[in-house]
Write a structure and sequence with these properties.
Layout (H helix, E strand, L loop, with lengths): L2 H26 L4 E4 L2 E2 L2 E2 L5 E4 L8 E7 L4 H11 L5 E7 L9 E5 H7 L14 E5 H16 L1
Parallel strand pairs: 5-6
Antiparallel strand pairs: 1-4, 2-3, 6-7, 7-8
């Protein structure tokens, strides 16, 4: 297999993963639309790997970095933290090849976890940068609760 074939397969695998996660997020956050962001040769033009929009077309403050492969999840979270706009929630989601998608892992900071869980009064004036790992199913449940609280 040539390097260009390997690269093409890798890009296709990543795009398929982004579409799969977007579909799961639309199911977990009813009324939202998720789409892949524009990417060129592995570098984002701007924003996270996928973008969520509410029913009015406004972006949801979730900055998602996705990876389908063996890259350590903390490096994806580092990237999300560096690139996320202020006030957004950086989250990394990684799929390990050969495993079920529902077993994927997500990582976010404790502060973002508490805010998304509706416990933001606990985080006032504190810098919770410690990281927490959760399953993809747990993350979808967490985001679903966050979305219901936002939309009433």
């Amino acid at each position: 297999m040539t390097r260009s074939t390997t690269g093409r397969r890798s890009r296709q695998k990543g795009q398929e993963y982004e579409r799969r996660i977007a579909s799961m997020l639309e199911d977990a956050l009813p009324g939202t639309t998720w789409k892949r962001r524009t990417q060129t040769r592995g570098a984002r033009v701007d924003g996270s790997d996928i973008e969520g929009l509410d029913g009015d077309g406004k972006p949801l403050p979730l900055f998602l970095e996705l990876h389908c492969g063996k890259l350590p999840i903390d490096s994806k979270l580092d990237q999300a933290i560096m690139d996320a706009p202020p006030g957004w929630h950086p989250i990394a989601i990684v799929h390990r090849p050969g495993t079920q998608y529902r077993n994927d892992r997500a990582r976010l900071t404790v502060g973002d976890f508490l805010e998304l869980a509706g416990l933001s009064d606990c985080t006032e004036d504190l810098n919770y940068t410690m990281r927490v790992g959760v399953s993809l199913d747990s993350l979808l449940t967490l985001l679903g609760g966050w979305w219901r609280r936002r939309t009433g």
